[in-house]
Amino acid sequence: MVFPFQDINHQDRFEAGRSLVQRGGAAAAMCGAKTRNGGSCRQPPLKEHTRCLRHAGPKAATEHRDRQWRDVQRGRISWEDFALAELKRAANRLRWRWKKDPWAPGRTIDLGEHEDRFQIELGRPDERGQAIAPAVLDWLRWKFRRMQLDRRRDGEWADLLRHEYPDRVRAAGPAPKMEANEWAGPEPEAAVWASRVPSTTSKRGRLDRVRVRRPEDDREIRAVPRKENPEAERVALARVAHENRVVVAPLIQKCTSEDEEIAFLRVLRACVENPNDQKARAKWIEAARTLSAR
Length: 294
What we know:
Low-confidence stretches: 125-129, 180-186, 216-225
Order of helices and strands: HHHEHHHHEHHHH
Mean pLDDT: 79
Strand content: under 5%
Strand order of the largest sheet: 1-2
């Protein structure tokens, strides 16, 4: 059942409230998991979970797959989209298997016409005359695509072949003893990236972003916040109240004292100025619910 808006003010209040909980809004739900650069994951969480698909764990991933299967049966998504998602999951399982067994057969990238050039530069089998682990080959193909196909970085490619590549070959260990027919078996089905010419607007030609990690010794250091000038704080609170007046005005009217109004606006200001702070957003939601229930 669709409930129409009573008037234009009703619609404006609805849109203002919805903008707070939409993705990127001050009260929007986010994953919040710690990332490699020290920040927080800003992806929306899965249904009935507090983390996104990347950080929610295997149980949530299984539930997500079950929901996709039900959506296929109901016609919400196509069979092609579901099949592509299944191939991606198979590729992820293959990468996870490679962590324990780098000699497990399979690959996740197809260089196509560039495969011959890759084999020539690699010199397979290597100088010691032994085979190369599929996990190492797959990793090296991705590096070849990044450093030779997307853009030429011959110096970095040469350094990789000289240093990191031999280290990974040694870490993979010797090839397990198998019969010849076992090596010729079919590779497991997984999502395989196919080589193609990137478009002019593709991000593949851009430089890699440098990931800055915070030192371990600095993670526990917290700066002591300075006390703000009372006059400057009042101006900031008034500005926040004016910018969010559609949502804030009905709630402020339910405050019983001036101190409660200031405390409420401080919570709102902290949430607006720090949209990635989970605690600030939780305090704002709790304060809004408390006043709305009066």
